[in-house]
């Protein structure tokens, strides 16, 4: 064996370990952690209000239970993160929250009771190439109904998803849930003679680009093909002019109301059996949405939604943020998709051979938290009140005051270290503290504490032009008896919330 073979797979580099982490696994600090926690609490609160119960299936599943997300057995790490159990069986980190649900329902059998209505929230892992806004580990928050065949169950998922987005602060016009169905699209494909899998896939991919390329660009992709700005040519689906016209009429059937869209679709889908069945599905969903009080602006029937139609067996829905935001780089961004779902009646059948109706809705918590942060709506996260330590030889006074504040229900800490007042104040600012408590010799002698409201102090300081004036005014600063410290600090903290 050579010396090279003896080298460890990883280890010290020039006497030091290399500080690095795998791509796609983001470090999260407190602000993001709390933003995600608030989103999960709000969304699951809506799910519970609608009668769903919590279920946690754990992070690992046997790899073969992940179904279509698992590649062949010879490549168990492609698409998922997997490892062998002590009995040599491959198990993998869950790819989503739906496949574990299907396994759970199959294991429980008829004793579970149906319909079974569950929600779940947690991280999922995908062994895919990471990129901007695309992670290998991220949080989702799902709700599913298993055992309910009617389209009213799909409508309930859609309306509940819209309510969850409103609950987290989305205003009318800032989001939309778009609804389509696989059978309706199948009817259109059958009607234009698209029987081959390659042609059908080319049409689906063309329709998926309607928002970006417009009708003319999609028409090129439906026909001979399209050359983009860089000169690259994409081969088209090869449809004739009449077939292209019919597919575009279908894709552009969306109107201001769900009823108008359905009327347009009735003209565009023709008389195929699949088209009639798909139209019937959407009509049933539209009636249920009206009964559920889902606003027209929140939920639209949109025949251009094609993502996920290979996975879902019926209706499919996609939630999208519409608001454009300006990032720190000055560029304008549109966040796009932040969730979706649909009907998947074949998933449990993988385990039991029995078709079990199921429908679900998933919100991408990590993506939504990132979107809210970009929009400046991640929510303010207050830091602790900081008690300055002005007696380097005896920090007991500061420690005691911090403990007293905590007993009063106030988040607080005593400054640890031997720095002067200015560095301690900078530390409090960096911690986003609402206030600092100061006790020096004068305060100890008088039995008082000095409290500085950092938010008001910063606002008033802007109007002060000189250091001398600042020292004289001491903006945002009050002195109160020691016995009144907790109430005075509490008032400051609550005023800033």
Describe the protein in words.
By secondary structure, the chain is an alpha+beta fold. It folds into 2 domains: 30-374, 2-Layer Sandwich (BirA Bifunctional Protein, domain 2), CATH 3.30.930.10; 385-495, Rossmann fold, CATH 3.40.50.800. Helix content is 39%, strand content 20%. The chain contains 17 helices and 18 strands. It has helices spanning 30-49, 98-108, 151-167, 182-191, 197-207, 210-222, 241-251, 258-268, 273-292, 349-352, 365-374, 396-407, 421-430, 441-446, 454-461, 467-473, 485-495, and strands at residues 53-54, 60-62, 82-84, 90-93, 116-125, 137-146, 175-181, 225-227, 233-235, 299-301, 315-326, 332-343, 358-364, 385-387, 412-414, 435-438, 448-453, 477-481. An 8-stranded mixed β-sheet has the order 1-5-6-13-12-11-7-10. A 5-stranded mixed β-sheet has the order 15-14-16-17-18. 37% of the residues are buried.
